[in-house]
Structure formats: structure tokens, C-alpha cells
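Long-time lurker. I teach an intro course on protein structure, and each term I like to show students one example going from raw sequence to a predicted 3D structure in C-alpha cell notation. This year I'd like something fresh instead of my usual example. Would anyone be willing to generate the C-alpha cells for the chain below so I can use it in lecture? Attribution to the forum is fine with me.
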Amino acid sequence: MASSPLPFLRGLRPTLHIAHRGGAAVAPENTLAAFRQAVERYRTDMLELDVHLTRDGELVVAHDATLERCTDGTGPLAALTLAELQRLDAGFHFTPDEGRTFPFRGPPESSARCAR
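-- Reply from a regular --
Happy to contribute to a lecture. Here you go:
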């Protein structure tokens, strides 16, 4: 016999699946690779992201105001132009296995490059 839901749960909508920073546990955070995996693999309902302004006035997706934690660059993100940011490797530090491999390090055409 199926039990009825608790009274305080009746009428609630299903919980949204939100990928924080685009799914930072499955790919470098705030990259197209992370956003794609969140949507295609996990069917996420919502992507959470942050934006910053570059030196030349372009909006870019990044969590940090500085570059060290997520890229092979250094210094404040706002000090660089969009073209300079696009040369950075946004997958440089990402590792799914505690530093044994770095599958998103790669050439400029890599999906983990900083993107506009």
C-alpha cells in the first residue's frame, strides 16, 4: 500500500537541479565544457555563473576576480583584454583525480579555454 505524502510536501514543485559554476566537479568551472556536461549529461535545469568585465569592456564568465586559481595566468582578470584572456588555459588546474591527471589542459582550441 502506497503511503500518501506528508501534508507539508503536498503541492510542492520538484527541486531544480542547479549546476554551480557550471558543474565545477566534472569540468573546469565556468567553461563551455562544464556547462555542456551539466546540461547534456546531468540535465541540469539552471546554470549558476558569475561575470566580470575585462580591461577592454567585454563581459566574461569567471568566478574569481583573479586568475591564479583556475587558469595558468596571474593577476586581476580586469587588467587583461578579452584577447589576452582567451589565450589562457582555464583547464590548467582542473583535476578529477587529486592531481594524477589534468584532462582539460590543452591547446587554444580546447573547450576549456577562457571564452567570451
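Some talking points for your students: The beta strands are 18-20, 46-48, 51-53, 59-61. The mean pLDDT is 86.
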